[in-house]
Every structure is written in C-alpha cells, then in structure tokens.
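Appendix B. One record, verbatim.
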Amino acid sequence: MGAGKKRKQRFLNDNPLCFFCGEQSTTIDHVPSRECFRDRVWPEGYEFPACAACNNGAGPLEQVAALYLLMGNHDGAQQTAQFEKLIAGVRNNAPRFLPKLEMSANAKKRALPLYNFPFPADEPIANAPIAELPEGNRTAFETFERRLTCALYYKHMEEVMPTSHMMRTFRLQAIQKSADDLIRTAAPMLPNGVVTKRQNTDIGDQFFYNWYADQATKTFVFLSQFSQSFVFIGVACPPEHAKGGDDYRPHSNDIVVR
C-alpha cells in the first residue's frame, strides 16, 4: 500500500463516520471544494470523512457555487484558466445555472446603488459589469451552504451533526452594502476567528470565518467570507431551539435515501 493510501486509511480509521450523514466513511471530501480556491490550492485542515454518496452527490451544484465564488470576487486577482474550465463545466453539466448577461440598463441602474461598487459616473450604465442570477441559482448555493455548515459543525463540535438538527443559511455578496451591516452586527457575537492557511504556500485570505458553539444545546453558528466574493452565515441547532425565522429546514432533508 502506497503512502497516499496509508494516509487515507489512517484518516478514515480515525474518522469512521461520514461528516454529512453519519454512515460509514469511505472517502475524503474537501469542504469547501478545491474548485472554490484559485488554481485549486486549498487550505489545510478542511478534509472530511464522507461516504461515496455524500461525497459525489453535490457534484455539479458545487461546481456552480465555485463558479460564482470566483466570478463574484473583487479582490483584484486575475482570473485563470480554472475560471474558463468552470464556465465550460457548468455549461455542460448544469447550463440552467449560468448567469444571464443580457440585462437592461434600467435593471442595472436599480441594482448599482445596492453595492459598494465604484462604477465611473461618465460610463454608460449599460456597460456596468452586472449579471442576473437565474431563478434556480439558490438551489446550488443552499447545497453549498448546508454542506459547509455540516463540515464546520463536524470540525468544531467534533461530532456528526444529528439528522434531526434544524439548519438555516443565508448569503450576500461581499460588496453589497447590507453585508457591511451583517458583518458588523454578527461578528462580535462569534468570538472564535479563523483565517485558513496552507503551509509554505501563500493562499491569501481566501476563506475566513468566525464561529460559536454551545456544547450544552448543540447549537453552532458561523459567519464566513470568501475573499471579496460572498459572505455566508449558517445556524444549526436542535428543533426546540430553532427560533427567529421560518426558513429553518431539518438536516434530514439533505440526506439521500439509499
């Protein structure tokens, strides 16, 4: 058995249950997906035990989320060949999730004030780099968000999230003006801060988050950001603590019946 296989087997021996559904783990899953990071260079410490069904089940939808994370990034980094491959992959596997580039000038004019985006005043509004997200886009993001919630719960609570737990997630583009208010309000309530890294490789601040866990009630909350792309917030708790919103859904809904 090669070194890679031995390492994988040790990891699965130490982590015998799938982080997502709790069944026996047989693979190693990267959450967030490697495609979410420039040139697929991902942070260390975000590998999770998974069964084959949970590892493979998100496939095309994870690809969609990765595309929008890179597309929506405003940190000034140049797009690479990876971005073109993601576009081609989504076009082949899930074309209904591609952005709608043909927006009217009036629609762009209504959208611009919502963002901290320095669009030149002397430039025609029709040239503003704004795309409309398709209706079904929320499905891809929710899949991404709920997997991320389960992964961070597993990492910091050190156990698999019960399928009876309720989850709610939310997202904003980092350049939306309302994102500033969300971060200012929520971050101080989440005392544990993490800036992910990779040894001997500068990957920048591509993925960072704050989190809070209450072991007594098995409640977990996080606020994460991907570069200057998207801000995500996730909450997981037992049903009796699922208060303050009607958008909680049970984790059992995420599990594929097999």
